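Lab manual, section 2.4: Encoding a predicted structure.

Procedure: take the sequence of the chain (320 residues), apply the prediction step described in section 2.3, and record the output as structure tokens. A sample record is shown.
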Amino acid sequence: MSYRCVWCCCEQPARTFVARERLFAMEGEFEYYECARCGSLQIARVPEEIQRYYPPEYDAYNALPDTYYNGVLGMVRRWRDRTVATGRGVLGRLVLLVHPQQDPRVRSVRLLNLTPQSRVLDVGCGSGLLLLILYELGFRHVEGIDPYYPSDRPIGGKVPVRRCTLAEYLAQHPEPYDVLMYHHVLEHVPDPEGEFLLAKGLLKPGGQVLVRLPLAGSYHWKHYGTDWFQLDAPRHLSIPSAQGVCRLAERCGYRVAHVGFDALPLHLHACELYRRGIPGFQHRPEMHTPAQWKQFARLTDRLNRSGEADSGVFVLRHQG
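Recorded output:
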């Protein structure tokens, strides 16, 4: 079978390897290529019945509880999350001293400098949890699309979501957006280059694309190999290196405005358990001691600072 890296276009794989489905302990082995130029990974053949690897237990559609922002605790959460998303708010800063916000989706929004008037589209929004958080924080022009969104109703009765692909939505000629977001979506897409090019048709000139996704070439991949939690075969069709993301973005006419890293200690916890042969659905926090969790936190912080972590966040600017 011929090979072409979907991120940097290199036609020479450095090597191939075989991975198994580890999250639900489903059957099957899947061959992957590692790019000789940029180090990105991609599956050799997409399974014909790929949807069977997204069972109802798959957590992309976890919803925000209706009571999350209710009462006194909800008010405190709102202060905290508004500060995390915007960098503003004295009360939120005080809350963060005692109750840090760990959701990297919310943290990443600060990179965009959104205003209440910003039009935002979350592509592959899953349950739309992040959109509902943004709406509750005062960003009222937020929407989502997801071909597998499980309902026709707006999220929380407030945020519109359309059950369609980006290409299908673009054909409806919507008004252009200030921001498109891809939170751990592009690794599931067969053609990330096509997705980046389509995205330009939905952006205002100077608009931004926020991309978060797992990264090959990381400490986690080098140290754990096929026990790497975020390899997630076969759902992750390709996993780029940071270099691969930048190459593709620039080839598609974007300027890379920001490169950062936002791995969580959970990733190391999961890798260690995969190494012991424990499938993902059996993972529980108590399987590691408090001392081990502190060690995971210290190492994760170091890897995020050094650029060796296994999750990246990129801001791309449309130069049209």
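Check your result against the sample. The longest strand covers residues 203-214.
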